UniProtKB/TrEMBL annotation:
Top-level taxonomic group: Archaea
Transmembrane region(s): 58-77
The entry's keywords: Membrane, Transmembrane, Transmembrane helix
Record field: compositional bias (Acidic residues): 1-11
Protein name as it appears in the record: Uncharacterized protein
Region: Disordered, residue numbers: 1-33
Length: 94
């Protein structure tokens, strides 16, 4: 008796794994945090533009502080969504 399972030599190829990943991604619904996360990433790039290209350090720092605020908002919305689903699942009706 061994501790490890014997594996089959016919492992799925990387293209099969990529297809499976695409299927999972297509089946995953868009959460409220996804567009906000994109906006946070854009704010970082815009901050760098203001700071380094335009030379406006104050505006660069100000815009750079938007990213953590937006990510905090996205986290709140995702937690609220999870809590709502949890409440719906635990409610058994009367």
């Amino acid at each position: 008796m061994t501790l490890f399972q014997e594996t089959d030599d016919s492992e799925p190829s990387s293209s099969d794994a990529a297809e499976r990943a695409e299927e999972i991604a297509e089946g995953t619904p868009l959460s409220a945090g996804d567009p906000i996360t994109a906006a946070a990433a854009f704010s970082v790039v815009y901050s760098w533009y203001n700071f380094y290209v335009k030379g406006d350090e104050a505006a660069g720092i100000f815009v750079g502080l938007w990213a953590p605020t937006l990510l905090g908002a996205a986290s709140y919305l995702q937690q609220k969504e999870i809590y709502t689903k949890l409440e719906e699942g635990l409610f058994f009706g009367r």
